[in-house]
């Protein structure tokens, strides 16, 4: 069963990378349901992350936020710092459209978590580009000084408190 669940994740990610958002979401939803049936929290969290990414790409921020928060809660419960970090970035990107201060603060917490891993966004160009685009959007719409202030709050907040803050949004 583990191989099937992981294969569904690979298929969902492949659809995401190909821009096939409906297929990505459908496969991720099957992965989520099957992982729930088998009690697999780790795979379910990745299914939720893939759903969040598909919803974000489709422009459904509310669904992206919901799925990313659910994934973040599971990843943090499992002490999966990488999984938590990618979900914080997804949450920040989803919020950057309308909740600028919160998004900047989450980027600060995400930066702190990525720093604890040892390598910024694992040097994955897609992760780095997403983070850079989010910051750029926030600086353009929120302003440099407000962005820096909110980002600093996220950086200076303990990671557990930063995760709690992220889980309490919307």
Characterization of the model:
Helix content is 84%, strand content 0%. The chain has nine helices and no strands. The termini are far apart. It is globular and about 50 Å long. With 170 residues, it is mainly alpha-helical. It has helices at residues 2-17, 21-37, 41-58, 61-77, 81-95, 100-117, 125-142, 144-156, 159-168.
Task: Record the SSE blueprint.
Elements: H1 2-17, H2 21-37, H3 41-58, H4 61-77, H5 81-95, H6 100-117, H7 125-142, H8 144-156, H9 159-168
In short:
With 170 residues, the chain is mainly alpha-helical. It is 84% helix and 0% strand.
Radius of gyration: 15 Å
Distance between termini?
34 Å
Residues in helix, %: over 70%
Structural class: mainly alpha
The total beta strand count reads: 0
What coarse outline follows from CA principal-axis ratios?
A: globular
| Count of DSSP-assigned helices | 9
- Taken as a percent bin, the fraction of beta residues is under 5%
Sketch the topology as an H/E string, one letter per element.
Answer: HHHHHHHHH
Low-confidence stretches: none
Average pLDDT value?
Answer: 94
Sheet having the most strands: none
Give me some keywords for this one:
single chain, 170 residues, mainly alpha, 9 helices, globular
């Amino acid at each position: 069963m583990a191989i099937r669940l992981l294969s569904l994740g690979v298929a969902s990610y492949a659809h995401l990378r190909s821009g096939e958002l409906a297929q990505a979401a459908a496969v991720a939803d099957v992965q989520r349901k099957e992982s729930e049936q088998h009690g697999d929290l780790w795979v379910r969290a990745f299914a939720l992350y893939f759903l969040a990414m598909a919803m974000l790409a489709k422009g459904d921020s509310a669904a992206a936020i919901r799925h990313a928060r659910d994934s973040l809660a599971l990843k943090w419960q499992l002490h999966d710092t990488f999984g938590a970090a990618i979900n914080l970035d997804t949450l920040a990107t989803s919020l950057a459209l309308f909740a600028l201060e919160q998004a900047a603060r989450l980027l600060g917490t995400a930066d702190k978590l990525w720093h604890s891993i040892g390598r910024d966004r694992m040097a994955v160009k897609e992760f780095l580009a997403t983070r850079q685009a989010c910051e750029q959007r926030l600086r353009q719409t929120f302003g440099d000084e407000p962005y820096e202030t909110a980002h600093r709050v996220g950086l200076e907040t303990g990671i557990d408190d930063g995760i709690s803050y992220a889980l309490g949004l919307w």
